[in-house]
Each structure stands twice: as C-alpha cells, then as structure tokens.
Amino acid sequence: MPERQGPQPKITVVMPAYNAAATLGSTYADIPPGSCDEIILVDDHSIDDTAEVAQGLGLKVIVHPHNVGYGGNQKTCYMEALRDGADIVVMLHPDGQYDPKILPDMTRPIAEGRADIVLGSRMLMPGGALKGGMPIWKFAANKFLTFVENLVLRQGLSEYHTGYRAYSRKFLETIPFLRNSAGFVFDTEVLAQATAFGFKIHEVPVQTKYFEEGSSVGFRASVVYGLGTLWTMVKYRLHKWGLKKSRLFEP
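User: That's the sequence. What structure does it adopt?
Assistant: Structure tokens below.
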C-alpha cells in the first residue's frame, strides 16, 4: 500500500477477523491507496486460512491461540494499534459488508479535530440498509434499540450498531475499554462510554451489503446482544444518577 506523504496523523486500520479468508482479499483491494499507514488483522482462532491470506497480502497479523470473542478481538486490535503509534484507528470488518472506499471520509473529521469518533451509518441513506439486504427483523431491532439509546444517551444518532468505526488515539487512551464485554455488546459499551466521558461523535453514510460469505450475527446472538444493549443503558443511567456506580464509566 502506497505511503501517505507529509506530516499527517498515523492512520491504522484494524480488522477483527474470524473465518474471513473468502472475503479478505476483495475487502483489502477496495481500500483506497494512501488512505492509511498500517493494517493490522487479528485472527480470532479461525478454522479457515484467514491468517495465511492476510500474511500473503502483507498485513500485520496477530493470531489468537483460542477464540476470545468479538469484543475480545477488538481489545487486541486497539492495544496493538496504540502500541504501534496510531493517531486514528479505523475498525473495518474483513467480511466485505462495509464499503472500504469511504475510509478517508471516516478519518477526516477526526484529523480535522471535529470529532473523536466517526460511525459509518447504514441508516443515513434512506432505505439503504434494506436495499443492501439487511433482514427486516434486524432493521426493526436496530431502529428500536437506537430509539432507546438516543433516549438514554441523548446523542441523536441514526444508528448505534454499525461495525464500521474510527476512533482518535485520545479516545482509546481515555475510555477503559479493557473492562468491556468480550462479546458483541462491546460496541454498545464503547458508545455509552463516549457519552459518559464527553467525546464528540460524528456519522457518515455508508453502503452495506449482506451476502452468503459475509459474516452475520444470527437471531439468537442478536437477542443476547439486544438484551445486553438494554442492560448497558440501565447501567449507564444508574451510574449517572449516582445510584450504582459502574467501572465501565470510571477513569
């Protein structure tokens, strides 16, 4: 990947991966040349050739000796990116669901000091999520949970459940993300922490596509995630009211 020129913030793309061998190559090919300085793939003990494909592409690869879950994978991603000196960290799933071509749009608000977090929202394009193949039950659940989260966190976001995110170094060094869940609710906890610590969140529209090779959370895991999201909102509100402190929202 061509190097970026001039004194600019170091941008690192992290890919939390599990069985992504079939889609990793095309995802990597769609990353705009010169849009980042490093790509780190963390393989969560895949049973396919994800790590070998990533190494063949010249990515920095870390392989977990056992599966630690989606949130646990992200913890490794962010620790490694910070250790390598990243100023902006972008989480891009290697399954091809999110469009890598908008990576510059994801990092620009942070580089310009307008945001600490940028979310690639599937809901900013009218009808875009459904046109991309999002199941109707997932769409409805996303809308419901987002309504509840906006009510509690008062952010006014179009969605909280995208897996395409960019974070500033300051943000990742401030929130106690190592205390977060090892599961999918990790993402919800991060945005609740962003609110608790007063960081600025920005959204950009992203096209998404659902297809057979792309990873997708099943119905049962989605129910667990939804309940975890609601419980996170309860913990946040109890913490803010001073009724029950949570380590998630303490420095």
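The CA atoms of residues 176 and 248 lie 6 Å apart.
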